[in-house]
Specification:
The complex is a heterodimer of chains A (about 250) and B (about 190).
Chain A: H1 19-29, E1 34-39, E2 42-48, E3 65-69, E4 72-78, H2 80-101, H3 107-123, E5 132-140, E6 144-150, E7 156-158, E8 161-164, H4 168-178, H5 185-199, E9 210-217, E10 224-228, H6 231-240
Antiparallel strand pairs in A: 1-2, 1-8, 2-9, 3-4, 4-5, 5-6, 6-7, 9-10
Helix pairs in contact in A: 2-3, 4-5
Chain B: E1 7-12, E2 15-17, E3 20-23, E4 29-33, E5 36-42, H1 44-65, H2 71-84, E6 92-99, E7 105-110, E8 116-119, H3 129-139, H4 146-162, E9 171-176, E10 181-186
Helix pairs in contact in B: 3-4
Classes of the chains: A alpha+beta (about 250), B alpha+beta (about 190).
Protein name (chain A): Proteasome subunit alpha type
Subcellular location (chain A): Cytoplasm; Nucleus
GO cellular component, one term (chain A): nucleus
Amino acid sequence: MSRRYDSRTTIFSPEGRLYQVEYAMEAIGNAGSALGILAADGVVLVGEKKVTSKLLQTSRSAEKMYKIDSHVSCAVAGIMSDANILINTARLHAQRYALSYQEPIPVEQLVQSLCDTKQGYTQFGGLRPFGVSFLFAGWDKHHGFQLYMSDPSGNYGGWKAAAVGANSQAAQSMLKQDYKDGLTREEAVALALKVLSKTMDSTSLTAEKLELAEVFLQPGTGEVQYQVCSPDALGKLLAKAGLTQPAPEA
Amino acid sequence: MVGKNCFAIASDRRLGVQLQTIATDFQRVFKIHDKLYIGLSGLATDAQTLYQRLVFRHKLYQLREERDMKPETFASLVSAMLYERRFGPYFCQPVIAGLGENDEPFICTMDCIGAKELAKDFVVSGTSSESLYGACESMYKPNMEPEELFETVSQALMASVDRDCLAGWGGHVFIVTPTEVQERVVKGRMD
């Protein structure tokens, strides 16, 4: 019955649903999770790395976090190849705006334009939607620090704390309980790590399984900084939060 | 101009329309990244637009390759961009200076359609270019330290623009070493 209506993206089902879009969201539900928390002095993004094999070459590039412009970055959940295309589109769009208006693109406009692209794939062309959800973190002079979540349908919303990927429902409800307005960046990091440790499948958290990035204003110059935490610093943070498994007794 | 593990890039500060001086603080030397600068002489609007387009390309390069562009690569990019407009060119002559691999100084200039000219000692462009060639040739010494390089570049620049009615109103000199950048405004004949 519903099978008849889900092979094409561009048609509604009798119940008024777009199955292809929902299937895309299913795909994301199997991918590594990502969390974003808005703090008073910055935005914190944490991601769970799904592929942690000893054989994997850990190059400098991150798996879940990407910089889009100097004042906007994003965390990704879903099909990585789809994400790469969208990130390139976002980067080009941000630079074209900067070239025309000689000022950095406001975060919401960037998110909107990317979501417009995603929406196009749900209405025409006969191509499948992108199987990616994003968490955008950025700063602009109009609205300060912002966090946006977008999904394959092209919907987006501004959030104080959001989660995408595996177990995102559980993470979202935990965030709803524990989030307070006016968190500092450190508190936000601690909260993010705590929530992620509870929702992740593995029993212990190690720095290799996570990626942490923060967007904040550099004290002194006031420039927006996007900093990815090094694995060592991340290990220390995990230990401080009491989340790493204690070393086995000798 | 190349020095010992450093380079200097300088320009005058006049913006004019034939005989009328419009501004005396016009910026002609632009930073691309900490170790790469480009000076653009010629038509002011083309200099500004070309700089904005280069920032566009360099930012995308930085995001994709996660590193700064090497000066040699950048020079090739500028050359390609200028030649794209072979039959309707930007009226600009760039002077590119940067610290490349192992902080080796790199300088080059090109004409307005992208003919690259590399040099080991100095490159010049603008209305006073012939004068500058003479002044630099006589004042240049290899392996100058940053302080001496600054003196030499300032003297050569001031001497040349003083004889050119379309250039002058002070000088803007950048001395770039691997660790820091010194930016100085040189006072000259204000005519």
